[in-house]
Protein backbone atom coordinates (compact mmCIF):
# COMPACT_ATOMS: atom_id res chain seq x y z
CA UNK A 1 0.00 0.00 0.00
CA UNK A 2 1.33 3.41 -0.94
CA UNK A 3 0.71 6.12 1.64
CA UNK A 4 -0.54 9.50 0.45
CA UNK A 5 1.96 12.37 0.32
CA UNK A 6 -0.15 14.68 2.47
CA UNK A 7 -0.74 12.60 5.59
CA UNK A 8 -1.14 15.01 8.46
CA UNK A 9 -3.50 15.55 11.37
CA UNK A 10 -6.77 17.30 10.47
CA UNK A 11 -8.01 18.90 13.71
CA UNK A 12 -11.32 19.83 12.09
CA UNK A 13 -12.45 16.18 11.91
CA UNK A 14 -12.93 15.50 15.62
CA UNK A 15 -15.73 14.12 17.79
CA UNK A 16 -16.30 17.59 19.29
CA UNK A 17 -16.82 19.13 15.84
CA UNK A 18 -19.05 16.19 14.90
CA UNK A 19 -21.19 16.88 18.01
CA UNK A 20 -21.13 20.65 17.35
CA UNK A 21 -22.55 20.10 13.87
CA UNK A 22 -25.20 17.80 15.35
CA UNK A 23 -26.22 19.88 18.38
CA UNK A 24 -25.67 23.47 17.16
CA UNK A 25 -26.24 23.20 13.41
CA UNK A 26 -28.76 20.32 13.53
CA UNK A 27 -26.76 18.38 10.92
CA UNK A 28 -25.79 14.71 11.14
CA UNK A 29 -22.52 14.69 9.22
CA UNK A 30 -19.82 12.20 8.35
CA UNK A 31 -16.30 12.55 7.05
CA UNK A 32 -15.48 11.18 3.59
CA UNK A 33 -11.95 10.53 2.40
CA UNK A 34 -11.52 12.25 -0.96
CA UNK A 35 -8.70 9.86 -1.88
CA UNK A 36 -10.30 6.43 -1.33
CA UNK A 37 -13.95 7.32 -0.64
CA UNK A 38 -14.19 5.75 2.82
CA UNK A 39 -17.08 7.17 4.86
CA UNK A 40 -16.45 7.60 8.59
CA UNK A 41 -18.96 8.29 11.32
CA UNK A 42 -17.94 9.47 13.79
CA UNK A 43 -15.13 11.21 11.88
CA UNK A 44 -11.41 10.67 12.39
CA UNK A 45 -8.62 13.19 11.67
CA UNK A 46 -7.10 10.80 9.09
CA UNK A 47 -8.64 8.10 6.93
CA UNK A 48 -8.58 4.74 8.73
CA UNK A 49 -8.15 2.91 5.39
CA UNK A 50 -5.47 4.87 3.48
CA UNK A 51 -4.23 7.36 6.14
CA UNK A 52 -5.00 10.34 3.93
CA UNK A 53 -5.89 13.62 5.61
CA UNK A 54 -7.81 14.82 2.57
CA UNK A 55 -11.31 14.73 4.07
CA UNK A 56 -14.59 16.50 3.58
CA UNK A 57 -17.78 16.89 5.64
CA UNK A 58 -20.97 15.57 4.08
CA UNK A 59 -24.52 15.29 5.42
CA UNK A 60 -25.94 11.84 6.14
CA UNK A 61 -28.84 11.32 3.71
CA UNK A 62 -32.31 11.87 5.15
CA UNK A 63 -33.53 8.44 4.01
CA UNK A 64 -31.89 5.06 4.50
CA UNK A 65 -32.60 1.43 5.25
CA UNK A 66 -33.24 -0.02 8.69
CA UNK A 67 -30.76 -2.90 9.04
CA UNK A 68 -31.53 -4.06 12.61
CA UNK A 69 -33.53 -3.03 15.65
CA UNK A 70 -34.27 -4.17 19.17
CA UNK A 71 -36.23 -3.05 22.21
CA UNK A 72 -34.12 -2.31 25.29
CA UNK A 73 -35.67 -3.17 28.67
CA UNK A 74 -32.56 -2.95 30.87
CA UNK A 75 -30.00 -0.20 30.37
CA UNK A 76 -27.12 1.60 32.04
CA UNK A 77 -27.49 4.72 34.23
CA UNK A 78 -27.29 7.10 31.26
CA UNK A 79 -30.34 5.67 29.51
CA UNK A 80 -32.30 3.95 32.30
CA UNK A 81 -34.78 6.86 32.39
CA UNK A 82 -35.80 6.06 28.82
CA UNK A 83 -36.46 2.32 29.35
CA UNK A 84 -38.08 0.73 27.41
CA UNK A 85 -36.74 2.22 24.17
CA UNK A 86 -35.92 1.03 20.67
CA UNK A 87 -32.42 1.04 19.18
CA UNK A 88 -31.55 0.43 15.58
CA UNK A 89 -28.90 0.59 12.90
CA UNK A 90 -29.64 2.61 9.78
CA UNK A 91 -27.71 2.13 6.56
CA UNK A 92 -27.27 5.13 4.29
CA UNK A 93 -25.78 4.98 0.78
CA UNK A 94 -25.05 1.26 1.45
CA UNK A 95 -21.77 2.11 3.18
CA UNK A 96 -22.62 4.26 6.14
CA UNK A 97 -24.12 2.44 9.13
CA UNK A 98 -25.39 4.63 11.94
CA UNK A 99 -26.62 3.27 15.29
CA UNK A 100 -29.16 5.23 17.29
CA UNK A 101 -32.35 5.42 19.29
CA UNK A 102 -35.57 5.23 17.28
CA UNK A 103 -38.11 7.65 18.71
CA UNK A 104 -41.81 8.05 18.07
CA UNK A 105 -42.30 4.57 16.68
CA UNK A 106 -43.74 1.30 17.93
CA UNK A 107 -41.63 -1.78 17.44
CA UNK A 108 -44.59 -3.52 15.76
CA UNK A 109 -44.43 -0.92 12.97
CA UNK A 110 -40.73 -1.39 12.17
CA UNK A 111 -39.45 -3.56 9.32
CA UNK A 112 -35.93 -4.37 8.19
ZN1 LIG B 1 -8.88 7.02 2.48
Please write out the topology.
Layout: H1 15-23, E1 29-33, E2 39-40, E3 55-59, E4 65-72, E5 85-92, E6 96-102
Antiparallel strand pairs: 1-2, 1-3, 4-5, 5-6
The chain binds zinc ion.
Zinc ion binds at residues 33, 35-36, 38, 47, 49-50, 52.
How is this structure best described in words?
With 112 residues, this protein is mainly beta. It has two domains: 15-59, no CATH class; 65-109, no CATH class. It contains one helix and six strands, in the order αββββββ. It has one helix spanning 15-23; strands spanning 29-33, 39-40, 55-59, 65-72, 85-92, 96-102. A hairpin with a 5-residue loop joins strand 1 and strand 2 (39-40). It is elongated and about 45 Å long. The model has no long low-confidence stretch (mean pLDDT 90). The protein binds zinc ion (ZN).
What fraction strand? 25-35%
Number of E-type strands: 6
Strand order within the widest sheet?
2-1-3
In this entry the ligands are: zinc ion
- Terminus-to-terminus distance: 37 Å
**Largest sheet data:** 3 strands, antiparallel
Computed over alpha carbons, the radius of gyration is 17 Å
Low-confidence stretches: none
Counting DSSP H or I runs of 4 or more residues, the number of helices is 1
Helix content: under 10%
Count of the separate structural domains: 2
Please identify the structural class as seen in this structure: mainly beta
Oligomeric state of the chains present here:
single chain
Shape: elongated
Q: SSE string, helix = H, strand = E?
A: HEEEEEE
Mean pLDDT: 90
Amino acid sequence: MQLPQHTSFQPEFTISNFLKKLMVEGRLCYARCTDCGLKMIPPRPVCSRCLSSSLEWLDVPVEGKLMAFSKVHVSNETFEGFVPYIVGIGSFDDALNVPGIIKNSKIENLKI
